[in-house]
Amino acid sequence: MKCPKCHSENPETKQFCADCGTRLTPAGSPQASFTKTLETTTDELARGTLFAGRYEIIEELGAGGMGRVYRAYDKKIEEEVALKLIRPEIAAEKRTVERFRNEIKTARKITHKHVCRTHDLGEEGKALFITMEYVRGEDLKSLIRRTRVLATGTALSIARQVAEGLGEAHSLGVVHRDLKPGNIMIDKDGNAKIMDFGIARSLARAGTTAEGAIIGTPEYMSPEQVEGKPADVRADIYALGVILFEMVTGRTPFEGETAFSIANKHKSEPAPDPLTLNPQVPEDLSRLILRCLEKEKETRYQTTGDLLADLDRVEPSLPAGERTPAGRPATKPKPATSKTITVKIIPRKLIIPALALIAVIAIVLGLGKFLPKKEPALSQDGPQSIAVLPFTDLSPDKDQAAWCEGIAETLLNALANLKSLQVRGRQSSFMFTAQDNPREVGRKLNADKLLTGSLQMLGNRIRITVQLVNTADGGPAWSDKFDGAMEEIFDIQDRIAAMTVSKMKVGLTEAESSKLEKRYTNNKEAYNLYLKGKYIERSVTADVIQKAIPVYLEAIGKDLNFVLPYVQLSRDYAYLYIAFGGVLPREEAYKKSKEAVTKALTLDSENGAAYAALANLNYSFENDLAAADRNYQRALQLSPRDPAVLEDHNFYLIQRGRLEEALEEIKLMVEIDPLLPQNYLYLGRQYYFLRRYDDSIAAYAKGLELDPDHINSLTWRNFTFLAQGRSEKVLDTVKRLDQLYPGLDAAWRAFIEASAGNRREAEKYRDAAMDEFENPFYLAIYYAALGDRDRALANLTRLYNENRGVLSFCFLVHFFDKYRSDPDFVELMRKSGFEFQKAPGN
Fold it and tell me: Between 536 and 773, where is the model more confident?
């Protein structure tokens, strides 16, 4: 079959050209058209263009009502800048140009670390453009969409930085007038920078009414702006109040179907109390926000100095772990990851298994002797390695985050099926963006290449631009633009995957080629709903799962044969019982999970994740160990590098007592996701289970470099310290834990005294921490430490009956080593499927 694009010959069985990746259509079949493109307007600049004789265009950063923004290299000053190309209909008005020039002269006077420096206003032919400081990072709107609700301390720190920047501008007589999250950049270190001073004022004075021109943003406009009255510094304070409201609640105070209805609410309706939307917001902060949002400007904060004083007064009301001293940047947002056994002692509530929220701070890793490699060089021989980064949203409203992440994840999963490629995991890869330095990203992820891209939707049209980047030098290996109707999204994804494989010169087996070309649905609505469900589950809690389940069911309603939602439903139903203390009753969870996974495997008998979900049911609900072994092996054959499959199987290995196998699997998990703190929790805990205490401490140290407040790592490391007899280290850690979760001191002192054989002191601390010791997991460990054999056995038996999935994690704590040959303990553990071996370390 001849390729219609490059005319290469291909076998009749192929769907894509081996040379260029174009979809192949058999003779006589209607040819799908890929020639339709998004209309290119005169205000677009292509990558590599030299504009105005000095600006080399690197990439497009976004588009809005004013025009397009590009990242460019200024050859004259030899540094990168942001270049905003003004829409022709705005630039055509001479008075507007002059006002721009005057306002930018004023804006250039603002030199402050939290204000993005404006360089110049230029003209090239009929094109009008503004150059400004390029900030490597993301705008606050994208950050809010990605994290939904920011930690209160992070929100407070960003608000403080913005207020400081506004204060400097106000002191020079400059009012922003269009302050919004889209005009605030957050750099890679968490520093906030305000953009676009003077631009809104110029547009407003010009009386520009062309469609799409920005003269204010309804969600953030003060009541006086809505009424067309003059705006002063208090309008900026009002907008900052709206932004702070949005950071801590995930939404703006006023919503509506039209811009007019939203604007009118700013005039006529009282702002809702942030506490009603997020009970975690401190009362002092809620009052501060509502004062910013007063209708009458005379009753708001009159200056940013007044506002900053109250922001500082709110700080002490935050949990110690969230406080950010003045002058320090905001803590980076902490995305959630997948399930982990949570062993944290929290007043009134002990949580054993949970899908915990894991904080991530991406830094350079120096991996220790316990890892496969130390400071690994990029792949030399062996398989090539690649990381797929989340795509950039170039849509005007920046509202396609779910599509951007979903398409990138779809491509990542497709490439992960190829044995000749090592694909880095989603959790580590999605910490970066295309704006990050590719050499640094490659070094941190140990990846030879990066696949980056951007997405833009206009009506029913979609444009995806992709780039394959060499991390050795940061240069492009390949780039292309894919345009089409939304109905063609699946064809576009297939072409991108095929082209990526082709450009990396990866050889495929027939089975791999078939997998790469596999399509799970042709229904755009079903796919969109599935991506929405996955996007909801970025942070995994019982509430989040319960919100995602109806979305997956709706996706299935659109396409009854779409396998992926069934797999996710099976996992979610099971987790609501296993991981969240019975949020869903056992029988209901089992029935719904089994129905979903059975349907999934009926539709796709080659789906590795579905076999892993079935194996989980075999072990956790059916006690069928042979079936669990068989189905986990099948899952690993089909998806040997799928992080979720590996994680599920690793928990199973520990539950079965197969500790050395589990260790090797965790090392593979670290290789796939080298920047994920929980992987170092798993590694440190596994070395502890094997009684390799020095290696355990070293592994925890790597994870705690990534996230110093990782509650599970701090807690499990304490058990290693206890095993080493280093009670002073335990107490040092408890001070940190107590800052994060007050009330832990007595509980840990009970463990220390029990392990030292001081029964009276241990019982005194245990009684003081009874709320913390209401769970059989901790009671069993406490009595084992104390040497109270019967009570340790009684609580271990209770744990077997209530939550068998964590039994082995309890029994592997070193205090139980003395009971390894006790017949009653041996029998209980054998009933759970634990393969009894000699005591670790003996």
Answer: 536
